[in-house]
Amino acid sequence: MADDWTPPQRGHCTCAVHLEQVLDVVVPPAFADLDPMTVAELLDSGDLKADPLSTAAREAGAGDYHWSLWVGDTARGYYHDHAPLRLDDGLRAAPGVVAVEWVEREEFVVAAPTLCTDGMTAVVAGVLIDPRVRGEHPA
Which helix (H) or strand (E) holds 110? Predict the structure, then answer.
């Protein structure tokens, strides 16, 4: 049975970065036919978000995970499947992240019990900001 985990509140989390620190960062597209977008624009599209897993989902078998990450159609244009850094590997390397499972094309579950909602959202945004997810090499 899943424990009674709830996301920690700001000030009681271990987040290295919070969302407001990355909102204005421009994310270059992975494909030439797309325009750059800020993290805020990606979030506004609804295709980039982090939500705590429901108690029901955790009790149904996702008990070791805490977060559901959605990287939908709009956000998919800002990473490349064959880039040197895969999204799941980038998430896995983030401070506070314990485990990641790529469930479907657009959905991940993440074990990160000490991150708050803004911090977990900043983690996924931070991976998209990394040029290695587009096949670029950092300067």
Answer: strand 107-111
